Target: Pyridine nucleotide-disulfide oxidoreductase domain-containing protein 2-like
Amino acid sequence: MAAAVRAGLWHRGVISATRRGSHSSTALKPQYDAVIIGAGHNGLIASAYLQKGGLKTAVLERRHVLGGAAVSEEIIPGFHFSRASYLLSLLRPHIYQDLELKKHGLKVYMRDPYSFTPMLEDGVRGRPPPSLTLGADLAKTQQEIGKFSEKDAKVYPDFLSYLERLACAIHPLLDAPPVDIPGLTQGSLRKKISALSSLKPLVKSGLKLEKNIPDFYELVTAPVMKVLNRWFESEPLRATLATDSVIGTVCSILERCLGLRGGRNGWSDVEQVLIGQDGSAKGVVLTDGTEVHSKVVLSNATPYITFKQLTPQDALPEAFITAVDQIDYTSPVTKINVAVDKLPNFLAAANSADGKPGPHHQCSIHLNCESVEVLEEAYREGQQGRPSSRPMIEMTIPSVLDPTLAPPGCHVVSLFIQFTPYLLEGRHAWTDEDRERFADTAFDWVERYAPGFKKSIVGKDILTPADLERVFGLTGGNIFHGSMSLDQLYLARPLPSVADYRTPVKGLYLCGSGSPPGGGVMGAAGWNSALKVLADFKRL
Model:
């Protein structure tokens, strides 16, 4: 089951530095045990655990709000948007408990049903177009699927069981760093024996999978349609399930919707990591020249920004820099946040007379997902440098569950749209006219499913891949800090030599989604990195 989340960011111990004439109640000091670059969710989580471990920590954020890509902003007066992020992939339960997030303002609104796919074609005379709704009630979901295929309805419970078996085996890998390959292969016998403990999560995962190991291997390596075609025959169901794989997740049943409210403190832009004479990290220098010294530095920025922009190049091996250049940040996503003055009214599920939201309004609403062919054509256009003329659109309406996000009677709408290239055909950058043209294309398609949508728009915020990079520091516009392809996961994320969060620069660590276990708002990278730092700090 999916959930919509509203929260105040936890601020316990967070230092938000003040520069550029802004005011903060916490003055930036010249010396800390640890400095964290970037106040995204992983940076904040790492900070909380470091301070629980006794380290005096400062979190430095260049934007005026905390939260990174998971931040909420009032970008249109009266309308609060989760501006870049909208999915909460497996927020680790122990983090939720350790940091007392409920006590500090986290409120979860459960969504049931959680997926709605309306069709465009006319239904039987006098009836609305068909639609597919998926939810926690298995009998109702099977009834929905049965409208398109009785066979699919019958096997759907087996498919869920198949996914759940595989997903449960992944959990041990999320809650621990990858296997310590350097420790197992280098150094003294004592060090190698100590590193054996890093194998436990992998062994535990394998034991949970047992005879399902071949299924797991196929799921993470095979094209998604090879798997779905074996299970199902109906186009709407296959296309709906395929959208989750396109976005970057393996198990759609584990996804969650996100909205975090950021704090308005001062901000601080890091220019460079300070390197001491011994070659280790000694803190950071800000863009205004201020030096903040520390014993360790954690970077919540992407690996590219960390190693190509923040770290002096002469502090890194040439071969390592070459490897960093090869990390894939390709992303086809444009996010459009829309403020509307009335609830969208879908032809496939008309609004009630009282104007109250229906169950389908709280869902992830999949548009242009009638068939896999429609998705594939949208993908082909994007590959050719052209924004899709019939894009895949995933719509959410968070204000249906949390009315405080918008003025009375109004709503905030999130459109997660594919496929859009970073550079347009001919390798030219997006212009304002290009953005407006693509937004109009997306709105035209929403209008076909929900007439009146375009007239209801009172404001919008268009974020192409290049805009996501510019605003949030997401290299290539990739919301996961790097492709979640098999060659950039687990032991190879972002590179095999830094998958343990340590970098070639002693005292400099990665703690963002570009490190294991990867993207999505789960917090595991921040937690794992903090544990690694605390263990190393004892030896400093």
